[in-house]
Design brief:
Layout (H helix, E strand, L loop, with lengths): L1 H8 L3 H25 L5 H23 L4 H12 L1 H4 L1 H4 L8 H17 L5 H20 L3 H12 L14
Length: about 170
């Protein structure tokens, strides 16, 4: 969202005013969020303090939706359409106001695709999506990727019992 707001601010004129105001509200959101994460602000007080920010963002998105610039109107209308999801972190404990975790999880796949130029077949695409899922899952679990893949190959050749990607819950 911050990138969208920055792009709006860089358009000049009416868009610039809206974009800059949205960026001010973004700073306030993160100022309050950091107080939650460093435990200097209670969740209840956070929710009370964020309410006027939410209202101001809604007003600015509405203004952007009516803006003369179609490049501003489009993103503002799209964000406004999913605005409830935008504020999920206010309502739901454990949800963060960024997509950093998702971007980190996808980073390896993006880098692989860029270096390898993708796949040339449906089967190749299936292999890549599956192997990247396995690698990401194992790393999140703190498990050794090569050890798992070696055991999986041995299992496929009947040299050992089955192997599970699910974390050990015992």
């Amino acid at each position: 969202m911050k990138r969208d707001f920055q792009a709006i601010a860089e358009r000049g004129g009416e868009s610039q005013e809206i974009g800059e105001a949205l960026l001010v509200q973004t700073k306030e959101v993160f100022r309050l969020w950091h107080q939650i994460t460093d435990e200097t602000l209670s969740r209840r007080k956070f929710q009370r303090l964020i309410a006027p920010v939410q209202q101001r963002v809604t007003e600015l998105l509405d203004a952007g939706s009516d803006c003369r610039s179609s490049k501003t109107r489009g993103p503002c209308r799209q964000i406004r359409a999913v605005e409830v999801a935008l504020w999920a972190f206010v309502r739901v404990r454990g949800v963060e106001p960024t997509n950093n975790a998702a971007e980190r999880a996808l980073r390896r796949a993006v880098l692989w695709r860029r270096k390898s130029f993708g796949t040339q077949s449906l089967e190749g695409s299936r292999f890549v999506e599956r192997i990247l899922t396995v690698i990401t899952s194992l790393r999140q679990q703190g498990r050794d990727v090569m050890e798992y893949l070696t055991a999986a190959c041995a299992s496929a050749h009947g040299e050992s019992g089955s192997i599970c990607l699910l974390p050990d819950s015992s």
